[in-house]
Amino acid sequence: MKTKLTFLFLLLCFIAKAQTVSPDNRIVVLGHATINVPADQVKFVVILSSVDSTSVDKVYQKHQKQENKLVKLLKELQIPAKDINYSLLTVNQLQNYNNRKRDTYFAGHQTVGFLLNDMSKFSEVQSRLIKDGFTTIRSGFESSKMEEKQTEVMEKAIEVARAKATVMAKSANRQIKRISKISDTEDKDPDFQNYRQSEMLNEVVIRGQSSMGNLVDEFPQTIPVSAQVKVVFELK
C-alpha cells in the first residue's frame, strides 16, 4: 500500500511539472481594443424634489403628487416597466443660516430613470416632462447592442494580443503554440471599460425645451467600448 501511495505521489508531481509552463517557454502580452457602438436609445433621469419648512408629512404629500403625475406620464408614453428604475425616497432635515438665524426645513429627493428606445421621440418626451413640471432632467445616449459588442471587443483584444505575441516570438526565432491563460491586467476576470456618453452628459440639467432631432439625423452618435486583457502564450 505504501509503495502504491509513493508511486501515485510521484506521478502527480510529474503531471504537475509537465503542466507548468517554464518562464523561458512563454510570452506575456497585453491586448487592447476599442469599438464604437451606434447609439439607438436615450436614458432619461428625472429628479423629484420636495421641500417644506414646517412638516415632514407635507414633504411626503408633495412628493406623492409628483410621483403620481410621473407614473401617469410614463404610462401615457408607453414606457415598459422593465425600462424604468428608481431610487427610494430620501428625506432629510436640513438647516439654513440666514442673517445669523438658523432655519430648519425638510427636503425629499428621489431619482427615476427610464429608457427611450425611439430616439426620434426625444424632443417630444422632453417637452412632455417639462410641461408637466419636471424641469430637472438628465439624459444621455445608450445602446441596445452593448452586451453583444462587449463580447466582440473582448475577442478583438485577444486577437491584438495574439498578433503582438506572434511578432515578438518571431523576433526570437520562436512560434506561439497556444494560449495558456487570459486575464485583465489585475489577474482577475476580463474587464470591460464602457465610456458611455450618458456618463459624460449626466450632469447636464435641462431647464428649457430643446431639440436634438436635426443633430441625431445629421450626426449619429456612437458609444466607445474598450477591453484590455493580459494573455499568456506558450511557445513551441
TrEMBL record:
It comes from the Bacteria. The keyword Signal applies. Keywords: Signal. Pfam families: SIMPL. Residues 1-18 form the signal peptide. The keyword Magnesium does not apply. This is SIMPL domain-containing protein. It comes from Pontibacter populi.
